[in-house]
Write a structure and sequence with these properties.
Blueprint: H1 12-25, E1 52-57, E2 61-66
Antiparallel strand pairs: 1-2
């Protein structure tokens, strides 16, 4: 799969702004710790408590997260 962020409403920031405004219109807010992704080019990966995943981002480095109960 291939894609670019601008394919979502022309800009990932525009997509995030749209989401926040739509949620606000129905009295749903975002809270600290909420995780929003404005797009992905990969299939979802099923995870369970105790699983750890890592992703390498070229020159930026590696991000690792562990899922807990």
């Amino acid at each position: 799969m291939e894609g670019v962020g601008r394919n979502v409403l022309g800009d990932p920031v525009a997509a995030l702004t749209w989401l926040v405004n739509e949620l606000s219109a129905v009295d749903i807010g975002l809270a600290a710790g909420d995780f929003i992704t404005t797009g992905t080019c990969s299939e979802p990966i099923p995870v369970e408590p105790g699983d750890s995943l890592s992703a390498r981002f070229d020159d930026l480095g590696v991000v690792t997260c562990t899922f807990v109960d």
